[in-house]
Amino acid sequence: MDTLNELANGFASALTWQNLIFAFLGCLLGTIIGVLPGIGPVAGVALLIPLTMNLDATGAIIMLCAIFYGTAYGGTITSVLLNTPGEAASAITTIDGYAMTKIGKAGAALTIAAVGSFVGGTIATLGLVAAAKPLGELGLLVGPPEFFALMVVGISLLVALAGKSMVKALISGALGLLISMVGIDPVAGAPRFTFGSDNLLDGVSFVAVIVGVFGLSEILSYRKDSKAAAVHAPGMRSLLPTGNEWRRSAPSMARGTGIGFGLGLIPGMTGSVSSLLAYGAEKKFSKHRDQLGKGAIEGVAGPETANNAHANAALIPLFTLGIPASPTIAVLMGAFLQQGLTPGPTLFTEHSEIAWAIIASLFIGNVLLLLLNVPLVGLWTSILRVPASILTALILLFMVIGAYTINFNVFDVFVMIGFGLLGLALRHLDIPLAPMVLTLVLGPLMERSLRESLEISQGDFGIFLNRPISVVLIGIGVLIVLSPLLKLRKPKALNEDPET
Amino acid sequence: MTKPQRTRVAPTVLAGIGAFVVVGVYVLVSSIGLGLWTSLGPGPGMFPFAMGGLLVAMSALWLVQELREPSGTASGVDRGLVLSVVISLALLAAVMDLIGFQLSMFIFLMYHLKIRGGRRWVSSLIIAVAGSFGAFYAFNYGLNVTLPTAGISVLNSIGL
Amino acid sequence: MPRTRIVAAFAAAALIGLTGCGANAGAANNTGVDFPKKGKSIELIVAFSSGGAVDTAARLVQPILEKELGTNVEVINKPGAGGQIGYTQLTSAKPDGYTIGATGSPSVVVSPLDPARGAKYTRASFQPLGRQVIDPTVIAVQPDSPFKTLKDLLDAAKANPKSMTASTTGLQTGEHFALAQLQETTGAEFAPVHFSEGASQATTAFLGKHVDILVANVSDVTDLSKQGKARVLGVMTAERAPSLPDVPTFKESGYELEAGTVRGYSAPAGLPEAVATKLEAAIQKAIEDPTVVKKMADLGLQTSYLSGKDYGEFWASQEEDFKKVLPLVQKTD
């Protein structure tokens, strides 16, 4: 078969010493960038493009792609160890990841995250090889109405994330949605809730918010007398997950792969949506869902797999259609162009050896990420051994640099401080953070796609019901919201039927 | 039937509920000014209006729940810690553009290591230098990321 | 009172002395400009995030500027609010030549026009130094569309206003203004759909057939046209775009309309004459450098240099055009 042949040739060139080193360097740099909160994948890839300008096209792109999916893992490390997400998509992992660290299972969390990332990334790349073109076209079917319907599904998962108090979850969700509405609105293009500040015209920086709400509030909530006190650095044995944990993670990884891969194909979907929805799916479908939030391995396995599956799948629209699915990939595309390569179908006809070498390198890169990070788990977790006073100071340093480098603006540091205080208040009042993160991410996407759909239909709400995909999705969303009520009905129905 | 314990609702909870109500009402009122509906569908004020309303409604429900069955609050907050961290961070952010990252972060780190952390002079100094001047050079030359330099030209000229 | 008089005299003397110093320096500058001072670096503020087109162009131009001016040129990204944050920083810097910035329209032209945005600058706050590239706007239809020429499309739109959807990259963006100008000059009205995530989102929606018409820049559309995924009916510029030689201009089809994205460099207004001359010369060298031109062409951007003065006039005429259609673009029903 042609494809296999091409792929084999691709491997041959990807496995040369130089390209292996580039892939490795890319993974390493990507991980480091993922660790630093402010420098997200976009800035990271962009900043490192000049480095790659002197390399040949294949090597340069290999390295840049490696940086790209490397960042997806890097953000996890700080999420799990320090409760501070390194990038947006890792936000939801903090919840169960850090809870696991607090009970001494940081190593297991990181290992499962690494393996999950590998699984998700590799399967997504297999998808790229096997069915790139049809999958690319599939992504195009999702227009604004379908996008909106997906957002409805996402927000309906808020119900699943509710936990014990629906009232508090709704407050959290409403807060998140409100915060997401600060800035220039998609309807009239006028500033909304910006209090005259230029800095708020783009809205509140998501990364600054999550670094504050998770990371800073954690520090602010230390109490000298607290019994849950010190975070334990795990001993050698507990660096690896137990057999039970591996078993529990498997279905989560499967779900995560599916969700991440599917959403990654849709241009405009960000990695954080995938990891959020994967977490929601775990809350809804996993066997141990009541443990979610207290350190359940599923809460790490699902989102992390989804994250990497998404990152690799998002390359499909780039390769097949020449469409960047996200700002990061747009930067990657710029690098392609500067090297004289035009991503899209012509890439495979005009530069097929380079294209296949890059694809082969995607597989290799996922392996490298795994090899790079699993042994380093011990190293990462030893961070926890650093004395508390030093660790706190360094974490603060890290968060300040992180917040500043989002937009090179001290305003974001103030945002972080403010949200640190808000996070402290929310913890104190026992209000869950997950719904707020959910609506913060999905809110703008939802409002935007609603508006776009109505502009297309010139005000006709029927557009959501005229199109098959969006009807199905909205139906799913409604089902999810109503499901707690349906569950209450079921036992009664069984009782009423004497024949069963 | 056991009588429910008539403990009072914790003041912090009341304050929290109150805060949400205030925010909710403010949003409700200002979103009307933004326009609730346009010819093509929801206006800029629609979602904020809904969310403001939701906040107020949920806060009211919460209050009712609390009055029926007051929850014990989580144990208190270490006020000294919160104040020192927040104020030092705010000061740091405020002067960072003025005196540059290196100097401001050095002072910040020294404060947290020596004064709050009670560490010895030598280790504090080393870590503070690494975290401020070291980090600056690492980011600037290693990652090509520029952290703020001093606004005051005097400091600027000595490389801060 | 004698004391205050002495203080006043002192102050006046000091002021005169200072201006005298300035004047002396200026006089000395006429021959060998003391700009830029050795070791003092120049900041190039880019109001958009790294990796984007404006940033890439600035970083390509940077090494040549460094060579020409003999000092470090640092690219500083200050993204946000569609350029407003960076532009604010640029215009509030001292006009001494040590701070320049990349200016792109329509963002720089539009942002001061809308009072709701509260921009702290106007056109007068900038001193244009040179225009680098133009990226004209084009109109494209689906490859299977019944419209083969621009006239067909516009006539159909005139007959049935708002019957066809056209993409823009957001409210009050270049495409939105282009559509408004189109309506103003030809009477053809389309229903705009605003894709605020940018050109790639608009293109994706167009490819998925969720919008009828793609309004985009030449650089976005060239590849699509080559693949046959879009039929470009007209380009809004005076001469045909080099990368789309078969596409007629609007002028050729009978409509007076020019629109597009334009990128160049400016300084805060009020530069001393000698400094401005030196900067402009360096920028011209950088813009016209063959490697830079080639790299820009690779990215699909057409280098079209205009001197500071001409760029300024062009900017003024763009502002006039936009002001005329501003009410059309601002109505929110």
Quick synopsis:
By secondary structure, chain B is an all-alpha fold. In chain B, about 70% of the residues lie in helices and about 0% in strands.
Task: State the main characteristics.
heterotrimer, B: mainly alpha, two-stranded antiparallel ribbon, flat, C: alpha/beta, eight-stranded mixed sheet, two-stranded parallel sheet, globular
Q: Topology, pairings included?
A:
The complex is a heterotrimer of chains A (500), B (160) and C (333).
Chain A: H1 2-14, H2 17-35, H3 41-52, H4 57-82, H5 93-102, H6 106-140, H7 144-160, H8 166-180, E1 183-184, E2 191-192, H9 206-220, H10 243-264, H11 271-285, H12 298-313, H13 315-321, H14 327-338, H15 345-350, H16 352-381, H17 388-407, H18 411-428, H19 434-456, H20 463-466, H21 468-496
Helix pairs in contact in A: 1-16, 2-4, 2-16, 3-4, 3-14, 4-5, 4-6, 4-12, 4-14, 4-16, 5-6, 5-12, 6-10, 6-12, 6-13, 6-16, 7-11, 7-19, 7-21, 8-19, 9-17, 9-18, 10-11, 10-12, 11-12, 17-18
Chain B: H1 11-34, E1 37-38, E2 41-42, H2 46-68, H3 79-99, H4 101-116, H5 121-142, H6 153-157
Antiparallel strand pairs in B: 1-2
Helix pairs in contact in B: 1-2, 3-4, 4-5
Chain C: H1 2-29, E1 42-46, H2 53-69, E2 73-77, H3 84-91, E3 99-105, H4 107-110, E4 126-141, H5 150-159, E5 165-168, H6 174-186, E6 191-194, H7 199-207, E7 213-217, H8 218-226, E8 231-235, E9 260-268, H9 273-288, H10 290-298, E10 302-307, H11 308-330
Parallel strand pairs in C: 1-2, 1-3, 5-6
Antiparallel strand pairs in C: 3-9, 4-7, 4-8, 4-9, 4-10
Describe it:
The complex is a heterotrimer of chains A (500), B (160) and C (333). With 500 residues, chain A is mostly helical. Chain A has helices at residues 2-14, 17-35, 41-52, 57-82, 93-102, 106-140, 144-160, 166-180, 206-220, 243-264, 271-285, 298-313, 315-321, 327-338, 345-350, 352-381, 388-407, 411-428, 434-456, 463-466, 468-496, and strands spanning 183-184, 191-192. Chain A has one domain (2-495). Chain A has 21 helices and two strands. Chain B has 160 residues and is mostly helical. Chain B contains six helices and two strands, in the order αββααααα. Chain B has helices spanning 11-34, 46-68, 79-99, 101-116, 121-142, 153-157, and strands at residues 37-38, 41-42. In chain B, strands 1-2 form a two-stranded antiparallel sheet. Chain C is α/β, with parallel strands linked by helices and 333 residues long. Chain C is 44% helix and 20% strand. In chain C, strands 1, 2, 3, 4, 7, 8, 9 and 10 form an eight-stranded mixed sheet that branches. In chain C, strands 5-6 form a two-stranded parallel sheet. Mean pLDDT of chain C is 83; it is low at 6-32. Chains in contact: A-B, A-C, B-C. At the A-B interface, helix 3, helix 8, helix 9, helix 17 and helix 18 of A face helix 1, strand 2, helix 2, helix 3 and helix 4 of B.
